[in-house]
Design goal:
232 residues, Arc Repressor Mutant, subunit A, 3 domains, two-stranded antiparallel sheet, 10 helices, 56% helix, 17% strand, elongated
Length: 232
């Protein structure tokens, strides 16, 4: 079943019966797209299938009343699938920025086909709407603005989002170049020390502070130095 027979409702993808392709149903509407004058929205048997270009419409003599048969379905499948995946991707990105990997995964969850997803990702990249390098820069900047973090944690978070190693190294080199990792660790250690009751034994407090800094991605030497400066 082609992906343009799928639709999203309440965060789940449901499947409806495919249209018959024996010529028993007709094209019932070709509505101009306000945001894209070069395309029209195709309705068959009053069911919205997606957008086709005016060039496609002219090439295949598609008009209201044209019979929907197997040949026409085969001719339009790729264009409809690609267009629907593209528009779904734009809606997703309007709500929240994503990496290419995250967007691809979300479109798969919604039931779009792999070829259509790849086309949509490539097109959005060409249009500079999708840019993993810029996404990574913004992500790292926001992470560091919220709370100090070490390179190891940031690397892991970017990898989870499918960012390539080359981009990770480039972005983190830039983001951490002017930061003092020891100062960041010291700040976090001091905050952790204040939140842990001094009723605990010093070794317990050290262990808990070490754990917090380690989870924030700081290396052992930096953690050790920061904790040694504390009056525990």
């Amino acid at each position: 079943m082609s992906s343009y027979y799928r639709y999203k409702r309440k965060n789940t993808t449901e499947t409806i019966e495919p249209l018959p392709t024996d010529g028993s149903v007709l094209v019932t509407a070709l509505r101009p797209c306000r945001d894209d004058p070069a395309r029209v929205t195709l309705f068959v048997d009053r069911r919205r299938l997606g957008r086709i270009s005016l060039e496609t419409k002219a090439d295949h003599d598609i008009e209201v009343g044209t019979r929907w048969d197997q040949n026409l379905s085969d001719l339009l499948t790729n264009e409809l699938n690609q267009g629907n995946a593209f528009r779904a991707a734009v809606r997703i990105l309007t709500k929240r920025s994503k990496s290419k990997f995250e967007l691809s995964r979300k479109l798969k969850e919604y039931g779009y086909e792999s070829d259509a997803i790849s086309w949509a990702i490539d097109e959005l990249t060409r249009l500079q709407v999708l840019d993993d390098e810029n996404y990574a820069r913004v992500f790292v900047r926001n992470q560091l603005a919220r709370k100090p973090a070490g390179r190891r944690l940031l690397t892991g978070k970017l990898r989870e989002r499918g960012i390539e190693t080359e981009i990770i190294n480039l972005v983190l080199d830039e983001a951490l170049e002017d930061r003092d990792s020891l100062a960041d660790a010291r700040k976090l250690a001091q905050s952790a020390a204040r939140s842990i009751s001094d009723r605990h034994q010093p070794e317990v407090r050290v262990r808990r502070i070490t754990g917090r800094l380690a989870r924030r991605g700081f290396d052992y030497d930096t953690i050790r130095t920061a904790i040694d400066e504390l009056d525990l």
